[in-house]
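User: Here's a protein and a ligand (guanosine-5'-monophosphate). What would the complex look like?
Assistant: Let me lay out the input and then the predicted complex.
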Amino acid sequence: MEKIKIDNNIFGEFLSAKEISERLVEMGKEITEDYAGKTPILVGVLNGSVIFFSDLIREIKCDCEIDFIRVSSYEKAMRSSGIVKVHKDVNSNLEGRHVLLVEDIVDSGLSVTYLREKLLKSNPASLKIVSLLLKPEQAKIDFEVDYVGFEIPPAFVIGYGLDYEQKYRNLKAIYSLIEERTV
Ligand code: 5GP
C-alpha cells in the first residue's frame, strides 16, 4: 500500500484512481437513466467536489447545466465543526429545475442537510444529492443521499479533491488516515 506522511500523520492509499473512475462510469449511467428527457442542473459544492464533479459530469450523457455553491464546515482541523457558512451562492434560478447537489463527502450530514434546506427554498422541481463518499457511522442526524460512490469507515480521507489544510486535493487517489500524530 502506498503511504504518505503529512505532519507525522500517516495516510495509506484507500481508493485507487482506477477504482474511482470505474465507479463514476456506473454512477454516470444511473444518473443518465434517471434524468432521461430532463435537463438537470448539477450544483457542485466547492472546493472539495471539484475533481469529482468534473469527472462525473463527463459520465452523464443527458443534457445538463452546472453551477456551484461554496460552503465551509471544517475549520482547519481534521474534525467536523458542525458550523456551515455560505461563501458563494448559486447564480442560477433553481425554481422549477431538477437540481442535483454534488458533494465530495458526507460525514456528520450537517452540511448536506443545511444545503438541502437552503436549496429547497428556491422551489426546485426536484432535489437529489450525490456524494462520492459517505461515512454512515458518522451520521449525527437523519438524512438521505440519493447516489453514493463509496460507503467508507469513519477515518479522515484526503486526495481527489479532499484536502488536508487546503492541500493534497490534487492527489489522484484517495488516502485514509491510518496513524494519527499523538503529540
Ligand atoms: P459534514 O457536515 O457531513 O460533517 O461534513 C461535510 C464536509 O466536511 C465535506 O464536504 C468535507 O468538506 C468535510 N469532510 C468531512 N469528512 C472529511 C474527510 O474525511 N476528509 C476531508 N478532507 N474533508 C472531510
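Summary: The longest helix spans residues 17-34.
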